[in-house]
Amino acid sequence: MDDARRSRKPTPRTSRPSAPRSPYPETSIPRPDRRERLRSQGAHDAYPRPRELEDVPTTIWTAANYVTFVRVIGTFIWVLCATFMAPDVEGGFSWPIFLLAIFFALIAFTDSLDGYLARSRGEVTDIGKFMDPIADKLICMAALLVLFGWGYLSIWVLVIVLAREFLVAGLRMVVASKGEVVAASTIGKWKTGFTMGAIIGYLVGIALGGGAMATVLLALSWVAMVVAVVLTIWSGVDYLLLCWGYFS
Questions:
Q1: Domain ranges of the chain
Q2: Domain 52-247 has CATH 3.30.750
Q3: What pLDDT tens digit does each residue of the chain (248 aa) get?
Q4: Distance, CA of 15 to CA of 2 (rounded, Å)
Q5: Global pTM value
Q6: From CA 125, how far away is CA 65, in angstroms rounded?
Q7: Can you tell me the distance from the alpha carbon of 163 to that of 156, in angstroms, rounded to the nearest whole number?
């Protein structure tokens, strides 16, 4: 028995079981933590991104966000320029205020430009959603404060606009805490359009410095501002009704 045991050759040990195959084979889409490394190595053509990720930008520095940041910086520059200007009480055309009106119109135009770029290029980002409404409110409130300081607006316009903005901001916070998002309404967009149009009309009318054309333009701007105030109240009530169910 002992000789038989000594003469028996030891059986070779079986190899250890191989590790389970990765759920991410080399021919499939790479894991999220590897995607950037593979792209930096020039392998992004071999590993296409999923369709649902095609429209998700990988950086906040998109063309639309550049326009939004320029609008915010331009607003502060606009206010700085307006600080050193005042309507000419003696009448006469004022080139500085007219250029100020053109500057404001350019800033207002970028409101539509950044939205178009974000949608057409598939570059909708969280920072853009956050900054775009802030930039809109910033330029409108800055211009309204300048017009109020020049004596062309009533304090009630500022009170109503500020009350509406605080109300909407609070409602959005409540809705966001429930995991929902309330999109901007059409009424709010019309409100912004009438407000910016009225501001441009006021600035051009003030730049004309007097005369029949300036009087008509200021009157039309006053009417547009009244419409903007009505739409401001309407949009605030509309937001309140939309969000009322989230308080229960």
A1: 52-247
A2: no
A3: 455 555 555 555 555 555 455 454 444 444 444 444 434 444 333 333 443 444 555 566 777 778 888 889 999 999 999 998 888 766 788 899 999 999 999 998 887 777 777 777 777 777 777 777 788 889 999 999 999 999 999 999 999 999 999 998 888 888 878 777 666 678 888 998 999 999 999 999 999 988 899 999 999 999 999 999 999 999 999 989 888 888 76
A4: 29
A5: 0.72
A6: 8
A7: 10
